[in-house]
Amino acid sequence: MMDTIKDYVFPKRFSILAYVCVIIHFHCGVILAAIATALRFGEEEKFSCAVDTKFATHKIYVEKTCFSIYDDAYNSPVRFYAFIVLNFGSVVVVSVIYSLAVGNRIDETEKYSSGSDKSETGAKKGNVEPGRKLYVFYFYFIHLVARLMLGILFTILQHVLYPSGFDSKFSCVYPDIKQSDPNITAAQNASVTLSSHVTCTNSAAQDKQFWGTFVSVCNVIFAIITLLEVAYLIWYQFPCFNTRSNVPWSCDSQFITEYFLQKEYIPSEDDKFTGIDNCTPNSIDIYKQNILKASLNTLDINYGANISLDDMFIDVVIQTEQAPHKFLKGMTRHEIYDVYMEVPKHSICLKEIKDLFYPNEDTKGNSPRTILALGRPGIGKTVLTTKIMHDWANGVDEFYHDKITFLFKFRCFNLSEFQNVTLKKFLRFGAELNEDKFESIFEEILHNSKKIIVIFDGLDELCSNLKEFKNYVDQSKTYSNDPDIPMSAMFLFIKIVFGYLLEEATILVTSRPTASDVYSKLKFDRKVEIIGFTLDKIEKYVEQFCANHEKNDLKPKILSHIKSSSEIKNLCYIPVNSFIVCVTLLNCLHDPDNDNPLPTTLTELYQAALVYFHKNHDRNESKGCYQKVIKELQWLAFDGMKNDQLIFYGELVNEQMKESGLLHCLPVPFFQIQAQVCFIHLTVQEFLAAKHIVETKEPEDINEFISSHVEHGKWHLVLQFLAGLLGRRMKMSDQYRSCVLAFTEHFSCEISDENIVCNLDPSQVLVMKCLRETKDEGIAKETAATSALKGVTCIRNNVHSHSSSEYAAMVFVCKHLNFLASLTLKGIPDFDCLLQVTKLLQERCIEKLSLEMPIVYRVELDLEHVLSALTDSECCINHEHSKLTQFTLNDFHITDAGVSSLIEFLLQNAHRICLQKLHLRGTKITSCGIAKFCDVLGNEICNQLIDLHLGWSDIGDGGVRTLCNALRREEHKLQRLNISSSLTTGSIFALVEVLGDEHCAITDLNLVSDAIGEEGVRMLCDVLKQEQCKLAVLDISNCSLTYKCMPYLTEALGDEKCRLTDLSLGSNDIGDESVCTLFAALRLEQCSLTKLDLGYCSLTEKCMTALCEALSHEHCGLINLNLGENDIGGEGVRMLCCALRKEQCKLTELDLSDCSLTDECLPSFCKVLRDERCRLTSLDLGSNAFTDKYLSLLSDTLKLEHCCLQYLGIWSCNFTDEGERLLEDVENFEHCKARRLRIEV
Question: Tell me: the pLDDT tens digits for 101-122?
Fold first, then answer.
C-alpha cells in the first residue's frame, strides 16, 4: 500500500515539510485505524458488569444489554475506527488529487532545471503550457488550505461526536428480564419502568481515550504546521503582507525550482522572460546574448586580457537624505570632477550591486523608483551600468526576473537618429531589436511599466549646464505625454524621470558631480556614490593586473612605488587611474633602457600611458606617422570637448586613427550605417585636448582660454592636464610661466572677523590642483607672495569635503603662505586626507587649529599623527611669537590614553601653547580621562582657557563632578562650557555649585540632550536668581523637559538678578499652556531675554495670542525667535504678522520652518515686509506647503527699497522651475543687491 501511495505522492511536488506531513498522516492513519479496529473487536469481551455470577444466563443478558446501551452512548453515529479512517484518509486523498493535477508541469520543470532532455522538452512545448503562470502555486496553496480546513474540521467533529470521550466505568440501568418485551430492543427495554441498576466496567475505554486524545493532538499539530506554511506563502508572495525586500515568484518554473526543488532559479529558454507572456522568447534571448558578449571586455576599467566583468571592483555607498551637503543659493556653483560627495555618518554600504534596487532606511522601506549614481571620472560608473545589464542577462537575482533592462548613453543623444523618436522607437534602439521582435515586448511593458529598468549613463556628458537643462525641461513641456508622439531623446528622458511616461519603471542615472546643477533639479528616491578602490583593493588590483600580464615579479616594485608616493596612491583610488599607473609603471620597469624617474603626477602618468599605448597597441605599420596621427587625435579630442561630442564617425576618423590604440570602435547599431568610435576613456580625450591647446595656441591665447573656461565644469580636468603640460614647457621657455600664473587670478578671499580668509570651495581647490600639477615649488611660492592669497591668515572648508589629492594640493600651496595662522577643516573624509593635513602642520605655526573627522572613518592613530606633526613643526618662517591658542579635534578617536598623550604634548610644548579654546567633541574620553585633564587645568598652558567643549563624550556624571570640583578649586577664566549629552540629575548639583561661586566666570552653558529632569531645571533656575551667577546663554534643548518646568523658568526670568539673554528650549514637550507663562515673563521689565529657541516644542496657534501680546509689549527685548517645527498654522501666522507690524516689536530674526503653513500665509508675510515698522532681516519659511500662487507678490515685495530683509529661507517647498527662477531673479535686483539679499530655495 505504501508503494501505491508513493506512486501518487511524489516528494518533488511538495515542500519538504508538507511532504513529511502527508507521509506521517498516511502512516498514522493506517496504524491508528488498525489499533481502533482491534480495540473495537475486543471491546465487548473487555466489558463486564457487577452481576451475581450464580445466574450465568442473567449475567450474559445484563452485560449484552448494558454493552448495547454503552455502545449507543459512546460510539454512535460513527464508530471510532471509521472516524480515524475518514480523518487521516481525507488529507491523503486531497494530497493525491493535487499531486496528480500538477505532476506533468512539475516533471517538465524538473527536467529543465536538471539540464536534461532539453530537446525533448522543447518538442513538447506545443503540448505543455510553459511554466509562466502561477498555476502550480495556486493549486498547491488551495490544497494546503484544504488540508488545514480538514484538520480543523475533524478536530471539531471529534468533540461533537465524542463529547465525553470513552468512560471506563458505566452506570447501566437495564430493564428487568421478566418485564422485558422480546418484540423490542434491549435499549428500548431500558425505558420500561421496572428496571435494575448495575455498574459496568470497560477496560478498553482507557486505551480508546488515549488514542482519541492522540488523534486530536495530531490534528492540531498538523493544522498548525499547515497554517504556518500557508502564512509563509502569503507573506512571501503577496507584497501587501510583506515589508521585506524579496521579489515574489513570477511563474511556476521559478516557484517549483526554488520552493520544491530547492535550487537556484535560472530562466530557461522557455521561461527567460516570464512576465511578458506574449513575446517571442528568441527576441529576449538574442538581446541577452548580445549583452553577455558585449560585457566580456570593458575598456573603462581594464584589468588585462583575461579578466571577466564579474571580477570588477565596485563599492557603492548610499547617500542618505540626511547628508549635510547642501547647495545654498548664495554659493559659488563651480563644479569639479574630483569632488567627494560628503558621506553621512549613517550611510549604508551596499555589498552587492543588486542592493541598489532594494528598499532600505534611506528610502523609508519603499522600493526606489529613481536612483542617481554619482562618481568621479574613471571611478567605474559605466562599468556599473554594464554590470547591471550583465547581471540581468544572467538572471543572477530575483529582482531581475520578470523585467527587461534598457541601457542608454547620453553621448548618443546628439545623434540624428535620437532627435525625433517615439517612446517605442527609443526603447527599441536600447534593445537593438527589429520592429517585429520588439512589438510584443513593447505592448506588454507599456501597460505594465513595473517590468522595466531603464539605465541612463553619463548625464554630465550631454548636459552639465543648468540653463541648458532648464531649456530642455521647458521645451519638453510643449509635448504631450503621449508615447506615440515623436520627440528628442532628451525630452523622453525628462518625461521618464519625472514619471510622465513609464511611471512605474525603475530608473538609474549616472553622472559626474560636475552636473550637480542639473541632477539637483531632478527628484531621486535614492542617491549613491561610487567611492572607488580602498587601499586593500588597490593591492588586489595590482596583483591581478600583474598576473594577467604574466609579470608577477614586478608586483612588489609597483606596489612599493605606489605606497611610497602619496600622490600616486591618491590617484589609484580612482580605478581608471590604477590602470594608467599600472600600465605606465609596468612599461617603465620592464624597459631596461628607461632611465627616467617614475611618474608621480596625473599629467606624467597620462603622458607615459600614451607611450605605452603607442608601443603596445598601435597597429599602424608605419611608425613614422605616429606624430601625425597623434596630432589628428588631439584635434579630434579638443573639437569633441568643445562641441560636446564624445562619439565620432564618418570622415572625422581615418583608419590610422582607429589603429592607434586610443580609440574604441563601438558596436554598430542596426539603425546606424557608419562605424562609430570613441576614445578608450573620457580622461584620455581630456588629456589629448589639453595637449592640443598647448601645442597649437600661443601663450596669450592659452591665458585667455584658462580665464574663459575655468568656470565650466566639463573643462576642469582638461585645465588640470593643461597646467601639468605647461609646467613641463616652463622648463624650456619662461614665456609659459604667465600661463600658469593665469590660474592664480581666480583665487579669492574675504574678510571675516578681522581675518583674511580663503574658503576651500571647488574653484579654489581646482586652482591649487592645477598648480600642484606643475611640480614647481617656485610657482607655489610666487603664488603665495603675489596672488590674492598673499595676506591670507585663515584657511577653512566649512561646506565642502575634499579628497586626499585635493588636500595634497592645498598643502602644496598653503605651506608657503607667510601669514597663515588659522586652519579650519571640517569633514576630513579619511585617514589619508588627515595625513596630508599633518604635512601642512609641520610646515606652518598654526595659532588656531580646528579639525573634524567623520565618525565612520576615525581611527586611534588620528590624534597621535596630529600631535606629532605639531611637535615636529619645522616652520621656516620666524613665528616665535605664535602660540597655539585654539585647538579643536572634533569626532577624533580620543580615549583616556589619548588624554595622556594630549597632556604630554601640552606640557612639552608649553612655550608654544597658550590655550584659550579647547574643543574635544564626540570623543571616547571617560571620567578617568577628565581626572587627568583636570590635573593640568591650573597650569599656565590652560589658565587662559575660556572655551571648553567636552560634549557628546563618555565622561558621565563622574566626569562632570570631577570637572566641577576642579573648576571650584583652581583659578580659571572659563566663560563657555559645553557638556551636552553627558550629565544627569546625579551631577547637576555639582554644576550648580560652580555656577553659584563668586569666582566662576561661565556665561555660556550648553546642556543639550542632558537628562537633567524637572529637579535639575529647578536647581538651575535657583542659581540663575543668585547675584554671583553670570550665566547669559543657556541651551537646554532636548532635555526631556515638560510643562512642569516652566514655572521655575518663568520665575527666574522675572528676577532682576537673572542675566539670561539667550535661552534654547527646543525639542522639549512644553505645550501651549505652559509656554504662555513663559511669554508672560517676556513682558516684565526685569527680563533680559533677547533670543529664544522654541523649535519642536509641541506648540500650536493656541499660544500665539500670548506670544503676540509679549512681542508688542514695550519691555519685551526679544530680537531672535525660533518657532520651527511647530504646528503654528495659518491663523497663528496671521496673529504673529499683526504683532510684527507694531512699533514696539523688536524682532529681527524669525524661524517658522516646517510650521504647517500654506499659500494663504504668504500675503500676510508680504504685508509685514512692506510695512516700514517691520525690522525683520532674516526670515526662514522653509519646508512649508507653498506653491507658485503668491510668488509674484513676494517677489515684488522683496524688491521694495524699504524692505530690510537680508535672508529668506524658502527651501523644500512645492515650487515649479518657473517659480524658482522668479526668486533667483530677485537677488539680481538693484535694491536686493544693495542689502545683499540671499534667498535659499
Answer: 888 878 777 766 555 444 443 4
- Rounded to whole angstroms, the Cα distance separating 464 from 1233 reads 27
- Mapped onto helix, strand or coil, the DSSP state of residue 185 is coil
Residue indicated by cell numbers 586652482: 767
**Which candidate, 106, 185, 189, places its Cα nearest to that of 140?**
106
- Beta pairing, strands 1004-1006 & 976-978: parallel
Q: How long is the chain?
A: 1241
Per-residue cell: 1188: 507658485
SS3 at position 223:
helix
- CA-CA-CA-CA torsion sign (895, 897, 903, 905): negative
Q: What is the pLDDT of residues 1206-1236, one digit of tens each?
A: 999 999 898 988 888 898 889 888 888 888 8
Is there a contact between 1115 and 1090 (Cβ–Cβ < 8 Å)?
Answer: no
Q: Which residues contact 586 (CB under 8 A, 6 or more apart)?
A: 545, 546, 549, 551, 554, 558, 612
Give the separation between CA 1148 and CA 1205, rounded to whole angstroms.
9
Sign of the torsion angle spanned by Cα atoms 172, 174, 177, 183: negative
What's the pTM value of the predicted model, to 2 decimals?
A: 0.61
Alpha-carbon distance of 318 to 328, in angstroms, equals 22
d(CA 1217, CA 467): 11
b/e per residue, 1170-1196, with b = 16+ CB within 10 A?
Answer: ebeebebbbbbbbbbebebebbeebbe
C-alpha span between 1019 and 990 (Å, rounded): 11
Nearest Cα to 304, choosing from 600, 13, 544, 558? Answer: 544
Report how far residue 389's alpha carbon sits from residue 298's, in angstroms, rounded to the nearest whole number. Answer: 13
Cross-strand partners of 649: 676
**Dist. CA 858–CA 841, nearest whole Å:** 19
Report pLDDT digits (tens) over 431-452. 776 676 677 677 777 778 888 8
Q: How does 302-320 read in b/e, with b if 16+ C-beta sit within 10 Å?
A: bbbeebebeebbbbbbbbb
Enumerate the domain spans of the chain.
1-111+132-175+196-241, 353-525, 534-593, 603-696
Q: Could you tell me which residues come within 8 angstroms of residue 297 by beta carbon, excluding any fewer than 6 positions away?
A: none
User: Which class for 1047: exposed (0-12), middle (13-18), buried (19 or more C-beta within 10 A)?
Assistant: middle
Q: Indicate the fold that domain 603-696 takes in CATH.
A: Arc Repressor Mutant, subunit A (1.10.10)
Confidence of residue 259 (pLDDT cuts 50, 70, 90): confident
Q: Which residue's C-alpha cell is 505522492?
A: 9
Q: Which helix (H) or strand (E) holds 985?
A: helix 985-995
Alpha helices in 1001-1084 (DSSP H): 1013-1024, 1046-1053, 1072-1082
Residue 270 is classified by DSSP as T
User: Contact, 355 vs 396, CB < 8 A?
Assistant: no
**CATH annotation of 1-111+132-175+196-241:** 1.20.1440.80
**For the stretch 375-407, what's the b/e string if a residue is b when 16 or more beta carbons lie within 10 angstroms of its beta carbon?**
bbbbbbbbbbbbbbbbbbbbbbbbbbbbbbbbb
Distance CA 359, CA 244 (A): 8
- Identify the residue whose cell numbers are 541632477: 519
Q: H or E segment at 825?
A: strand 822-825
Closest CA to 971 of 948, 998, 1005: 998
Show the cell assigned to 305.
Answer: 586580457
CATH fold for domain 353-525: Rossmann fold (3.40.50)
CA distance readout (Å), 399 to 250, 406, 455, 656: 10, 15, 15, 45
Question: Do 1007 and 977 contact (CB within 8 A), yes or no?
Answer: no
The sign one gets for the Cα dihedral 515, 795, 564, 870 is negative
Please name which of 158, 163, 141 lies closest in space to residue 218, comparing C-alpha atoms: 158
